Q: What sequence folds into this?
């Protein structure tokens, strides 16, 4: 072996006999350009100092000297590569040379510890470390594993750590088990595993990707450059097979492989999970425990099965034991069977003594390497009663794998070593269907296949069940999907179809619905409040369930425990971006069927309807954050309802509240459709002129009015007004309500005299009936002032509003809605009078107060921002207007608002940008505004046409056409 000896003046080459080699350091690095590296001839002739690679030699010499070593080895110059015989001997000996080195220094030329400036903490260089070329080269694999001491250095000669302190990072980069990185013999790992470690690595010479593994597999063979990688790999395989076939004490006796099922040849996907299972390290001095947790039917057993079969193939010396844990009887029976197979059972053994014998055996060195799988550990009470948790074996060569539906059980048994198994991805789901379908051509209809996978939520068991049904009945994927789209009861029947399955335990059922029934029963027994939450959620839409919608428990802890239980079973999941819950769609259907069979579905539905009715009441004065997330769930319940039996039912109330929400959110077309639907549903209810039915018609007329459909609105209002006068009387509150809306309609049409007469009549009637300081009377007073304003009677309007404002401040709090509305109208009067300095403070107060009271995305808040920005715009305060509008737009976007106010904000913002000469931005935004107006109001609405006209003029502007804006 040739080494470099450190002298006072530098270092020089020295030869040693193999039996007389002194302690030495060794360098691991990546080659640069061949012309930059210092060769054997360079060192021999003393002329390598000018090459870039000489710095690496100097680094190694300096570090070796610091560690008290006088010799070091570097591959570039310690091997005469022109001598083929020496090169071949060196390649075969390389693993041993690295293994015998006192120190191995890894020089990372592409990692600088000073990349973060003065910061030399791991966070500063971790990213570069993980991307280093050193981890991609073939020869560096043995340079990592062979030496007992491997230290990593940056390009600026700063020590980053050693392979022990950096083992987790190295494991994550290379996927090599931590135990191998920390020094376990490579022979302790399977052949396939060792080949896998080099799979993504590269070498300059193609044969070297094979030759660099000779030491890893502890074999020797001739080096033949030019033979090609494939031939070299075949020769290596033959050498490995020959070595492994030689008789030895460790291989003569076949290791037990006691597994309940055969390998599933149709298994597909789950590569990342298998990688985690293979790479999860065994902690020193104790058994590795791993748990696979997930929803019933997600493929936990199949994943564990594939893992142990892969392990058997890679580790011939690894025993595998499989214990079905569905019941105590199954565990006891399998323990007796294993003890008998191992020859350690006694004739008079009790179950407890059998358990102890197995624990002692698995904890002893005699047992060797083993994997113990406990499948279906769902009932933790079995383990607690028998003390199984405390009796688990302890052996650093052992691995225990648990599969469970309950993540809480997984954490209890395996702590943080838990794989959360979720549904398959789209590609894996398609491959799974391909593996199970008889007629593969069915998958050619991609749209049908995608629809099926989506409806079954990519759940493996449901996909296998579907494929089996399709095979048995010779139907298409589209036909099966149509069955899934039928009534809920029919879908449940389909999901309850039993099918042959070679991977289920005797006495257990395998349909999807039966799988979850077990979990439902367990939840009901162990946490009744969690079962109540599940029942409640089953009557909501399965997506985006807000926490505020769930019923209160006896304590906050009860609520947290209930959510934790449902999450642990994977029945629900919490969304990271908004904290809402999503219920698995198939679990949603199965739970509803369970409730239907129990006769309690309607009871839970009534509870949900009552809760939603309360939340959606008076939304005109509530923050949308409180009620907007509940609207999809109200719609879900309304779609399930078969009709309205009477006007006093909670369901009718929910119909009305939901429709009101649509109106208050500026979603006028949807509100119109819903009010029309209510009229159709109540058509058969006794009393066509019932006050509640008249109320629905009045609200529908209000929606027509909001959409500028004045003729339809007036006709319906007059009809309702006459019916209300006849059935309720001219001074009834409902009659006066309709009269108020009709007066507003007249004002909008410019029929100001009619509007004034009707407004004054309502005002007088409300003052007489309710009193002058009642909120409805004050509202009428404001309506009269608005008519005066429209007539140009600004002083009378101002006087009336000032009187009204004084009454409001006396009768109510400053932030009362009546006070704010009066302030809005008074600001409008001031603007008409050319008094903007008095108007703006009022508008600013209204906007700020409504943000606090109603939230930033409420329609009324947005309108207040719109009016204030319009004032800024008209008085050339463009920067103030833009700042305000951008804030209002962001508030609405952040909270998902879809109402008219959002469109108004963008309308004015586009106008601001146009005035600023930013035409490109203005045009793009105005196009969005027009799309919103068409969706919310229709293409013929005046606002839509006005926006289109503005857009046309902007697009015709020469500045826009020239692209100069």
A:
């Amino acid at each position: 072996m040739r080494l470099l000896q450190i002298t006072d003046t530098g270092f020089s080459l020295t030869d040693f006999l193999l039996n007389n080699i002194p302690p030495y350091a060794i360098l691991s690095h990546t080659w640069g350009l061949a012309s930059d590296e210092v060769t054997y001839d360079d060192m021999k002739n003393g002329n390598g100092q000018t090459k870039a690679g000489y710095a690496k030699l100097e680094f190694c010499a300096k570090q070796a000297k610091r560690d008290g070593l006088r010799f070091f080895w570097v591959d570039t110059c310690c091997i005469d590569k022109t001598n083929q015989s020496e090169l071949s001997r060196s390649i075969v000996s390389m693993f041993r040379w690295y293994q015998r080195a006192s120190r191995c220094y890894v020089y990372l030329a592409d990692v600088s510890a000073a990349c973060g400036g003065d910061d030399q903490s791991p966070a500063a260089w971790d990213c570069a470390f993980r991307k280093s070329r050193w981890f991609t080269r073939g020869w560096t694999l043995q340079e990592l594993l062979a030496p007992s001491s491997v230290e990593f250095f940056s390009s600026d000669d700063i020590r980053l750590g050693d392979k022990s302190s950096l083992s987790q990072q190295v494991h994550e980069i290379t996927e090599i088990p931590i135990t191998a990185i920390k020094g376990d013999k490579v022979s302790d790992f399977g052949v396939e595993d060792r080949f896998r470690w080099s799979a993504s690595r590269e070498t300059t010479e193609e044969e070297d990707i094979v030759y660099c593994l000779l030491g890893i597999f502890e074999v020797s063979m001739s080096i033949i450059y030019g033979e090609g990688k494939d031939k070299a790999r075949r020769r290596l395989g033959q050498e490995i097979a020959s070595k492994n076939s030689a008789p030895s004490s460790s291989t003569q006796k076949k290791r037990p492989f006691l597994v309940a099922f055969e390998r599933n040849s149709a298994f597909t996907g789950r590569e990342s999970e298998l990688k985690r299972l293979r790479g999860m390290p065994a902690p020193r001095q104790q058994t590795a425990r791993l748990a696979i947790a997930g929803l019933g039917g997600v493929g936990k057993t199949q994943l564990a099965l594939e893992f142990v079969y892969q392990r058997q193939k890679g580790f011939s010396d690894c025993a595998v034991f499989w214990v079905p844990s569905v019941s105590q009887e199954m565990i006891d029976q399998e323990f007796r069977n294993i003890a008998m197979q191992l020859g350690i059972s006694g004739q008079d053994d009790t179950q407890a003594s059998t358990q102890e014998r197995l624990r002692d055996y698995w904890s002893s060195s005699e047992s060797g390497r083993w994997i113990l799988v406990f499948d279906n550990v769902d009932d933790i009470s079995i383990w607690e009663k028998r003390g199984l948790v405390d009796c688990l074996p302890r052996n650093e060569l052992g691995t225990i794998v648990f599969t469970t539906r309950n993540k809480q059980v997984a954490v209890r048994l395996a702590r943080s070593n838990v794989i959360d198994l979720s549904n398959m991805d789209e590609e894996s789901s398609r491959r799974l269907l391909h593996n199970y379908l008889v007629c593969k051509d069915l998958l050619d209809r991609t749209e049908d296949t995608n629809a099926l996978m989506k409806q079954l939520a990519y759940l493996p068991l449901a996909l296998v069940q579907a494929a089996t049904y399709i095979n048995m009945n010779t139907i298409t994927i589209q036909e099966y999907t149509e069955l899934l789209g039928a009534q809920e009861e029919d879908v449940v029947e389909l999901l309850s179809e039993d099918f042959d399955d070679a991977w289920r335990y005797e006495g257990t059922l395998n349909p999807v619905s039966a799988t979850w029934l077990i979990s439902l029963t367990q939840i009901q027994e162990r946490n009744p409040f969690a079962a109540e939450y599940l029942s409640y959620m089953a009557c909501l839409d399965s997506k985006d369930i807000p926490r505020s919608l769930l019923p209160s428990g006896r304590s906050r802890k009860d609520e947290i425990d209930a959510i934790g239980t449902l999450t642990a079973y994977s029945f629900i999941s919490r969304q990271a971006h908004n904290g809402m819950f999503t219920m698995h769609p198939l679990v949603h259907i199965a739970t509803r069927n369970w409730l239907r069979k129990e006769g309690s579905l309607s009871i839970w539905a009534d509870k949900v309807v009552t809760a939603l009715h309360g939340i959606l009441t008076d939304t005109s004065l509530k923050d949308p954050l409180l009620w907007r997330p509940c609207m999809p769930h109200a719609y879900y319940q309304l779609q399930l309802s078969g009709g309205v039996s009477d006007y006093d039912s909670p369901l009718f109330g929910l119909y009305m509240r939901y429709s009101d929400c649509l109106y208050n959110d500026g979603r006028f077309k949807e509100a119109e459709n819903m009010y029309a639907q209510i009229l159709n549903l109540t058509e058969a209810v006794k009393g066509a002129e019932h006050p509640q039915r008249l109320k629905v018609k009045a609200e529908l007329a209000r929606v027509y009015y909001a959409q500028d459909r004045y003729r339809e609105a007036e006709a319906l209002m007059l009809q309702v007004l006459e019916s209300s006068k006849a059935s309720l009387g001219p001074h009834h509150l409902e009659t006066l309500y309709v009269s108020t809306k009709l007066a507003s309609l007249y004002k909008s049409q410019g029929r100001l005299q009619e509007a004034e007469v009707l407004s004054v009549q309502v005002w007088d009637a409300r003052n007489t009936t309710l009193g002058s300081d009642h909120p409805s009377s004050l509202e009428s007073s404001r309506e009269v002032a608005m008519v005066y304003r429209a007539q140009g009677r600004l002083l009378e309007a101002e006087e009336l509003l000032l009187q009204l404002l004084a009454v409001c401040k006396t009768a109510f709090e400053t932030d009362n809605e009546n006070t704010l509305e009066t302030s809005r109208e008074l600001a409008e009067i001031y603007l008409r009078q050319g008094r903007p300095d008095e108007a703006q403070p009022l508008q600013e107060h209204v906007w700020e107060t409504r943000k606090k009271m109603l939230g930033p995305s409420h329609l009324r808040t947005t309108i207040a921002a719109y009016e204030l920005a319009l004032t800024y715009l008209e008085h050339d305060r463009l920067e103030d207007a833009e700042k305000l509008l951008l804030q209002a737009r962001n508030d609405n976007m952040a909270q998902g608002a879809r109402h008219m106010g959002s469109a108004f904000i963008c309308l004015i913002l586009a106008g601001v940008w146009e005035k600023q000469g930013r035409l490109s931005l203005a045009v793009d935004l105005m196009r969005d505004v027009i799309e919103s107006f068409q969706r919310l109001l229709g293409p013929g609405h005046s606002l839509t046409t006005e926006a289109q006209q503005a857009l046309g003029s902007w697009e015709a502007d020469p500045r826009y056409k020239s692209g100069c804006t």
